Amino acid sequence: MYDLSIVIPTCNRATLLSRGLRALRESVSCSFEVIVVDGASEDETPEVLIHARNQFGDAIKVIRENRREGFVRAANKGFRAATGRNLTWLNDDARPLPGALDNAVKQIDAADDGVGLLAMFHRWHSTRNVAYETVHDDEVYRLCHVRGTLYANFAVGRRRTFEQLNYFDEQFFFFGADPDLSLKAWHAGLRVEPAYASLIEHDEHDDDRRFTDTPRGQEDNQKLFAKWDLPPKNPRRNDFDPANPCTLRGLRMTTAMAA
After folding, report:
1. Which of 103, 104, 123, 189 has the highest CB neighbour count under 10 A?
2. In the chain, beta strands by DSSP E
């Protein structure tokens, strides 16, 4: 069994995907597999994946969708096909720094059963909703919170945790999935903790696909706050408290949900 399964949803980003796969080959020492879920790409992605097969051998799996169904469904297909004892995901424009995933695997293996997910630090370019930050080679890497609750943009967790949480909620298309997964962990009585010395380069690459997805992102955010009973937005200050990293009050019980 692999130490780690890494799921990468992608669509029409062959150059970014190739760079990300190369980073995995060069930066990860533990035993790992990669599951690439291709959302019916029409660019050079199939050629990149043929080349990757020559590099990774049986440690790479490819799932090709007949049409792009969005990040969330793609990631869930990858999670269900994974065989590692720990799981994580990466965007196709994200690259782990050397040792990042190895450190995260060591930390989750040593963690007590109350730790559900580890949050890997990433290059978040906004100063809003920042929970923690660290500096490496003069670059700032951050973790984020949602209304005072720490969540993992890139999470590492045990297989049984992902199964317990039922992976990503497929009512989301992309943007609300990672905070929702972490909120499900907190709601289940598990903790989300920083993955120390685990740093991810994240380009947040702007292209036509990202522009097209933006309206879906706004819908996802509305669904997120409709689902969870979180504190009201605080426009004046950052309201994250490391001593109280969860302000979640549970599910928001609407009339429809109660029925």
Report:
1. 104
2. 4-10, 32-38, 60-64, 86-89, 94-96, 115-122, 130-136, 139-146, 149-151, 155-158, 191-202
pLDDT by residue for the chain (259 residues), tens only, comes to: 999 999 999 999 999 999 999 999 999 999 999 999 999 999 999 999 999 999 999 999 999 999 999 999 999 999 999 999 999 999 999 999 999 999 999 999 999 999 999 999 999 888 889 999 999 999 999 999 999 999 999 999 999 999 999 999 999 998 899 999 999 999 999 999 999 999 999 876 666 666 677 777 789 999 999 999 999 988 888 889 999 999 999 999 754 444 4
> DSSP secondary structure string, 209-259?
HHHHHHHHHHHHHHHHHHHB--PPP-SSS---BTTB------B---HHHH-
Question: Which residues span the domain enclosing 11?
Answer: 4-258
Residue 222 carries which side chain, given as an amino acid letter? Q
- Dmax over Cα atoms in the chain, in whole Å? 54
In angstroms, the CA 71 to CA 14 distance is: 16
Listed residue (214, 201, 165, 168) closest to 37, CA to CA? 168
Q: What is the CATH number of the domain that holds 205?
A: 3.90.550.10
* Residue 56 to residue 24: CA distance in whole angstroms: 10
- Give the N- to C-terminal CA distance of the chain in Å, as an integer: 43
